[in-house]
């Protein structure tokens, strides 16, 4: 919420324990880490743009969480949030990202030639392949905190940069508030259109303010490369296509991203990145690569196997329904993707998906024939 | 000096870009902190009000009708004493364009001073919403003397229940859109302590939303007393649901005829109600209870937000003045089918709702009928209007039952301008 530091000064009139949130019913990373003493130490701080501790944690206070699913419960309002509030965010990051330490360094590798294989996932099983990430534009506040002027600035920059893409990346921008009925229907049919967030996790952080001002979708003419502007992050970049050629998807992903990055640099703006956290995004869960590489894959037999979850865990993969993060699988078709974001490079994560899906499909084929999969059980990655 | 210069040079390309957004090239270099983010103060210079002006072209609410780029430019950088801003007042109206038929208000106050500091916006909004009431020139009458109400008993064959509600804000504490957790808890503390001092037919108990037992919750639901976390985007976009259910609760007397909501959409909502048509008693209890609560908080050095321009100050401009909605659940099977029903209500300055409240439609033949107006007429005047109006409606209903014709009454006069 954009209350800003002036409002925060007023709150300091009250003692820290009078302001401390009631987290007794809560189950999210923020609630696990925050203590009254930490709150007292951090409550008077603010980032240069005026983002405060209460702004960081509001979504976690408002959304106690689920007993089974651990949400993050905090967001960044700008790049400096991760520095100013590191006392809270470092342990949250460590908890969320498998023990990633404040001193660890993150490797970025967007060279698609380093990916081995990935061009031959069996399309009898793998229906589609997709890689997504996010990017934040340095110099602008993030979606929870940006003003309308800043959000429009991000949109203007993005539209200019994307307009300079050429070849198979040439495309068009559709501003959410200007699109025609026909354009809107087409984007829905293509499964490209994003809508105003309804999840209370997002709404409580202030990301949906001023909707649909300065929000839009850009995609190339081939409909294989897609950029969301000002949804949950400044930019979400998606490469996708039907079938199992993850290598081609990743190639396009890396080429496109690298090109976009240089187009932004030409216009005087870098992406938010540092060697500890990698690419800086709104939610701590997306730090590092911000990358989710996944497939829609038919695993009707494997998914009923007692060891399914265990196999996924060992392969460092996660399953979702094909409607996305909040859905369940239908008809034995799963969205399988990498579980990690930080501490592994892009190439490493996509490699895990490629190798893991190959194995899962092999297991599926065995189970189809009524054979055992015991000899195929992977070691923990 | 050297450091600043170095920063200026290293951020030259960014400065060029920023200049294209409308700021001076020389100035922008100085405005960047070392790693490229803009300090809050500096942002104001870089982003002039015109860059932040909301796109209201598809909007239909009082705020969108009243806000101009010139007003926005004058007010954007102002702060109330509680550090509340115009952007925060209007966020709900920007996020909720509104309905073509129903004009919502589209702005809220974060504190008492919002109505002063942002008067250039709130005054025209108030005028629009309250039938031309001009806060600059007019004064609002407060009258909580229930003995003045005449004819306050309805025919129980038609009126199923009677109810009067209003809101009160505690002076010195920010309102629900703006309050911090500590302030909200302070409101709860002040109000609960005062209510504990009520006696006799008003003596009762407080149920904190976060701490009530399953059993208590079920009872409150069965009594139709329990309020839930707001789901309407009109409210959630105004930041009112933050920290739910912290410091929210329900107080009611043992007889279940006097009820107070704490920290829902206002600091307090005060409700007097009972089954049947004895509006006189409902209003008498309402006034008595309100006066006693006011007295109890004054003993401890607190008071309600009130001034003679705006009457009782509440979060939503639509509730200024009396904040009063007096209403009945009334059966009107014949009248409701008559094509003149809406016009009759209009002229009587009444509105109809479904019996589930403002966002519901009527089911069957029973309607929630209440006063339209809040500001510019006193509590006694508004309840009298409701009483006279409901008597007229029941009279129409009886006539139609007997096959007689009814008349559309002349419109009730507005307040004197």
From TrEMBL, chain A:
Enzyme class: transferase
Residue spans of biased composition, Basic and acidic residues class: 96-110
Family listed: Belongs to the ATP:guanido phosphotransferase family.
EC number(s) recorded for this UniProt protein: 2.7.3.2
Catalytic function, reaction form: creatine + ATP = N-phosphocreatine + ADP + H(+)
Domain spans labelled Phosphagen kinase C-terminal: 125-367
Binding site for ATP: 128-132, 191, 236, 292-296, 320-325
Name recorded for this polypeptide: creatine kinase
Keyword Ion transport attributed: no
Disordered as annotated region, ranges: 96-118
Alphabetical keyword list: ATP-binding, Kinase, Nucleotide-binding, Transferase
Keyword Transferase assigned: yes
Cellular component terms (Gene Ontology): extracellular space
Domain Phosphagen kinase N-terminal: 11-98
InterPro entries, alphabetized: ATP-guanido_PTrfase (IPR000749), ATP-guanido_PTrfase_AS (IPR022415), ATP-guanido_PTrfase_cat (IPR022414), ATP-guanido_PTrfase_N (IPR022413), ATP-guanido_PTrfase_N_sf (IPR036802), Gln_synth/guanido_kin_cat_dom (IPR014746)
A molecular function (GO) term: creatine kinase activity
SUPFAM superfamilies according to UniProt: Glutamine synthetase/guanido kinase, Guanido kinase N-terminal domain
GO biological processes: phosphocreatine biosynthetic process
UniProtKB/TrEMBL annotation, chain B:
CDD domains: creatine_kinase_like
Extent of the signal sequence: none
Primary location recorded for the protein, binned into one broad class: mitochondrion
Membrane-related topology note: Peripheral membrane protein
GO BP terms in the entry: phosphocreatine biosynthetic process
Pfam families linked to this entry: ATP-gua_Ptrans, ATP-gua_PtransN
Start and end residues of each Phosphagen kinase N-terminal domain: 45-131
Keyword Transit peptide: yes
UniProt keyword list: ATP-binding, Kinase, Membrane, Mitochondrion, Mitochondrion inner membrane, Nucleotide-binding, Transferase, Transit peptide
Subcellular location: Mitochondrion inner membrane
Molecular function terms, GO-annotated: ATP binding; creatine kinase activity
Biological role stated in the UniProt entry: Reversibly catalyzes the transfer of phosphate between ATP and various phosphogens (e.g. creatine phosphate). Creatine kinase isoenzymes play a central role in energy transduction in tissues with large, fluctuating energy demands, such as skeletal muscle, heart, brain and spermatozoa.
The protein's name: Creatine kinase S-type, mitochondrial
Native species: Parambassis ranga (Indian glassy fish)
């Amino acid at each position: 919420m954009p209350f800003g530091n002036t409002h925060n000064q007023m709150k300091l009139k009250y003692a820290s324990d009078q302001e401390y949130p009631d987290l007794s019913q809560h189950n999210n990373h923020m609630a696990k880490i925050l203590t009254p003493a930490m709150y007292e130490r951090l409550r008077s701080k603010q980032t240069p743009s005026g983002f405060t501790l209460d702004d960081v944690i509001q979504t976690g206070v408002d959304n106690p969480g689920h007993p089974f699913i651990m949400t993050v419960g905090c967001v960044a309002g700008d790049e400096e949030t991760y520095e100013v509030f590191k006392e809270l965010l470092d342990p949250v990051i460590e908890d969320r990202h498998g023990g990633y330490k404040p001193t660890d360094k993150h490797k970025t590798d967007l060279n698609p030639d380093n990916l081995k294989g990935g061009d031959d996932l069996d399309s009898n099983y793998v229906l589609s392949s997709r890689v997504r990430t996010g990017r934040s534009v340095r110099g602008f506040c993030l979606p929870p905190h940006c003003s309308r002027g800043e959000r429009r600035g991000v949109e203007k920059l993005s539209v200019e940069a994307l307009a300079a893409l050429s070849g198979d990346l040439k495309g068009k921008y559709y501003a959410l508030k200007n699109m025609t009925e026909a354009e809107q229907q087409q984007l829905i049919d293509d499964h490209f259109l994003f809508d105003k967030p309804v999840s209370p996790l997002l709404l409580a952080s202030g990301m949906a303010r001023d909707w649909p001002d300065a929000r839009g979708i850009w995609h190339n003419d081939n409909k294989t490369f897609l950029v969301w502007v000002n949804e949950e992050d400044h930019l979400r970049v998606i490469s996708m296509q039907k079938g199992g050629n993850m290598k081609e998807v990743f190639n396009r992903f890396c080429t496109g991203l690298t090109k976009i990055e240089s187009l932004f640099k030409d216009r005087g703006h870098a992406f938010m990145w540092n060697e500890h956290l990698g690419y800086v995004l709104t939610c701590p869960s997306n730090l590092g690569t911000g990358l989710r590489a996944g497939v829609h894959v038919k695993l009707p037999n494997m998914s009923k196997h007692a060891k399914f979850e265990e196999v996924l865990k060992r392969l460092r993969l996660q399953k979702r329904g094909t409607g996305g993060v909040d859905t369940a699988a239908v008809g034995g078709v799963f969205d399988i993707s990498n579980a990690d974001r930080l501490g592994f490079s892009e190439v490493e994560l996509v490699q895990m998906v490629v190798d893991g899906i190959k194995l899962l499909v092999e297991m599926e084929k065995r189970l189809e024939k009524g054979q055992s999969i015991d000899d195929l059980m992977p070691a923990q990655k | 000096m050297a450091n600043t210069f170095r920063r200026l040079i290293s951020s030259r390309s960014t400065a060029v870009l920023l200049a294209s957004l409308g700021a001076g090239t020389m100035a922008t270099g100085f405005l960047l902190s070392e790693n490229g983010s803009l300090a809050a103060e500096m942002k104001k210079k870089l982003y002039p009000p015109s860059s932040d002006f909301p796109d209201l072209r598809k909007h239909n609410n009082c705020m969108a009708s009243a806000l101009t780029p010139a007003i926005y430019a004058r007010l954007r950088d102002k702060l109330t004493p509680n550090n509340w801003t115009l952007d925060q007042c209007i966020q709900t109206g920007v996020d909720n364009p509104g309905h073509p038929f129903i004009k919502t208000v589209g702005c809220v106050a974060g504190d008492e001073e919002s109505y002063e500091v942002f008067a250039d916006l709130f005054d025209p909004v108030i005028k629009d919403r309250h039938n031309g009431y001009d806060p600059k020139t007019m004064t609002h009458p407060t009258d909580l003397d229930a003995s003045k109400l005449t004819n306050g008993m309805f025919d129980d064959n038609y009126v199923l229940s009677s109810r009067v509600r209003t809101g009160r804000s505690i002076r010195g504490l920010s309102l629900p859109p703006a309050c911090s957790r500590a302030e909200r808890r302070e409101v709860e503390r002040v109000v609960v302590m005062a209510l504990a001092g009520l006696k006799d037919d008003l003596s009762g108990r407080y149920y904190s939303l976060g701490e009530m037992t399953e059993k208590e919750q079920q009872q409150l639901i069965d009594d139709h007393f329990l309020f839930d976390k707001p789901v309407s985007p009109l409210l959630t976009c105004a930041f009112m649901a933050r920290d739910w259910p912290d410091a929210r609760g329900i107080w009611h007397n043992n007889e279940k005829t006097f009820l107070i909501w704490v920290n829902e959409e206002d600091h307090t909502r005060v409700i007097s109600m009972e089954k049947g048509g004895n509006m006189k008693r409902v209003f008498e209890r309402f006034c008595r209870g309100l006066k006693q609560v006011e007295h109890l908080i004054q003993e401890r050095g607190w008071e309600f937000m009130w001034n003679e321009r705006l009457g009782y100050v509440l979060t939503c401009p639509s509730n200024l003045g009396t904040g009063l909605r007096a209403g009945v659940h009334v059966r009107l099977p014949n009248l409701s089918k008559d094509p003149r029903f809406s016009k009759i209500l209009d002229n009587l300055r009444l509105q109809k709702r479904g019996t589930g409240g403002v966002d519901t439609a009527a089911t069957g033949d029973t309607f929630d009928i209440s006063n339209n107006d809040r500001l510019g007429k006193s509590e006694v005047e508004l309840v009298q209007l409701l009483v006279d109006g409901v008597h007229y409606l029941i009279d129409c209903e009886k006539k139609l039952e007997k096959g007689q014709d009814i008349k559309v009454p002349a419109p009730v006069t507005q307040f004197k301008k």
